[in-house]
Write a structure and sequence with these properties.
By secondary structure, the chain is of the alpha+beta class. It has 4 helices and 4 strands. The protein is globular, with a radius of gyration of 13 Å.
Amino acid sequence: MAFGVNRRELDKWKEQVRKGEVAFITHFWVDERFPAVKSITKAGCADLEKLSEWGKKYGLKKEWIHIRGDGFPHFDLMGDTQLHILKEEGLHDQIKRFIEKKED
């Protein structure tokens, strides 16, 4: 279950993804399969090759791309990988808003 983002933020992410940009949206998340995970970031892009190449920078494999029928392919980022990528991408606002502070 996702929560913590508004419609405007979601629509902006979807528009960027449709345009072929690598776009990020972070939200609170509850899933019994991952009880320690409190947030997740979706790194999406409609251009699968571009998304795959972007993911390689962070050791993400093309086969990890979540491809759904709604046209918003994305990597699901969580835990240390999520925090590392958000820092590297300069998305400090998403870290402050959704991720508990961790010691570096």
